[in-house]
Design goal:
The protein is mainly α. Helix content is 67%, strand content 0%. It contains eleven helices and no strands. The chain is elongated, with a radius of gyration of 27 Å. It starts with a helix and ends in a 26-residue tail after the last helix. Residues 18-22, 119-126 and 255-264 have low confidence and may be disordered.
Length: 266
C-alpha cells in the first residue's frame, strides 16, 4: 500500500515538473525574440525579468551575436536588480571572454558604476557624503574600470562621465589615505601617519586633499620630535596653502553628524 502511495506521489511530482516546463511562455521563442523581450523588460525597469530572459537566451542559444549581447547586458540588469556580486561576475566574465569586443566599453563602464555606488543602498545614510571612510578596494576598482574606458575608448559615449568620476575618485583615494593617517595619529603611530601623507603627496599631487595631507604630515613630524622635517613641511604648506583653514585655531574638520561616535576626533 505504501509503495503504491509513493508511486502515485512520484508520478504527480513528475507531472508537475512537466507541467511547469509546458507553462514556460518562452518555449519555442527564437534568440531574437528572447533578446527583444529582455530589452523591453529593461526599458520597463523590470530588471529581474530581463535577467531571466538573458539567461534563457544564453542557455538555449550559446553561440551567435544575441548570446554575446545577452552576456554583455545581463551585468547591468543584475546590478539594477540589486545583485551586485552577480553583476560584477557577469561583466568580468564578458571582459575575459571578449577583451577586444567592439562594445567592451559597455562592460568596463558598468563595472566602474557598480563599485562606485557600492554603498548607496539601505545603509548609505550611515556614511558621510564623501568616500574617504569607505572601502578603498571598491574605490580603486571603480577608478581602474573608468580609467580603462577613458584610455582605451576615448571616443566612447561613456568616456566623459567616466573621466568626471575618475577626478572624484582620485580625491576619494587621497582622502582615504588621510583618514587612515589621522587614525594613526590618534593611536600614536606617528611614523605610519607620516608615511601615509607622503604617499598622498607623491601619488595624488593634484588632489584637493593634498592640503590636508600636508597639514597632517606637519602634525606627525611634530609629535615625532622631528623638528627639521616639521619645519620643512610647514614651509611647503605655507607656500602652497597660505590661507589654509587647517592652520587656523581649531583647524578644519569634516562635517560629521554628532551621532557618528565611531569617527576619530583628533
Amino acid at each position: 500500500m505504501l509503495r503504491s502511495v509513493l508511486a502515485v506521489l512520484f508520478a504527480l511530482a513528475l507531472a508537475a515538473c512537466g507541467g511547469a516546463e509546458l507553462a514556460d511562455e518562452t518555449a519555442g521563442w527564437s534568440a531574437q525574440r528572447l533578446y527583444g523581450e529582455a530589452k523591453d523588460a529593461m526599458a520597463a525597469k523590470e530588471f529581474g525579468k530581463a535577467v531571466k530572459y538573458f539567461e534563457k537566451l544564453e542557455a538555449r542559444f550559446p553561440y551567435g551575436r544575441y548570446a554575446q549581447q545577452a552576456q554583455l547586458e545581463v551585468g547591468y540588469a543584475l546590478w539594477k536588480d540589486q545583485e551586485r556580486a552577480s553583476a560584477i561576475a557577469a561583466v568580468d566574465r564578458f571582459i575575459k571572454l571578449y577583451p577586444n569586443h567592439t562594445n567592451v566599453d559597455y562592460a568596463w563602464y558598468p563595472k566602474g558604476l557598480i563599485n562606485f555606488n557600492e554603498l548607496t543602498g539601505v545603509l548609505s545614510w550611515l556614511t558621510t557624503p564623501d568616500m574617504s571612510d569607505r572601502d578603498p578596494k571598491a574605490t580603486r576598482e571603480a577608478f581602474l574600470a573608468f580609467k580603462e574606458v577613458v584610455t582605451r575608448f576615448p571616443d566612447s559615449r561613456y568616456a566623459p562621465d567616466a573621466h568626471a568620476r575618475m577626478r572624484y575618485l582620485v580625491n576619494a583615494l587621497a582622502a582615504n589615505e588621510i583618514h587612515v593617517a589621522k587614525y594613526y595619529i590618534k593611536r600614536g603611530a606617528y611614523l605610519a601617519a607620516a608615511n601615509r601623507c607622503q604617499y598622498v603627496i607623491q601619488h595624488y599631487p593634484q588632489a584637493p586633499a593634498l592640503e590636508e595631507a600636508m597639514y597632517v604630515l606637519v602634525v606627525a613630524y611634530d609629535r615625532l620630535g622631528m623638528n627639521d622635517l616639521r619645519d620643512s613641511a610647514d614651509r611647503v604648506m605655507q607656500k602652497n596653502f597660505p590661507d589654509s583653514a587647517f592652520r587656523k585655531p581649531g583647524g578644519k574638520r569634516k562635517d560629521i553628524p554628532v551621532w557618528r561616535i565611531w569617527d576619530p576626533d583628533w
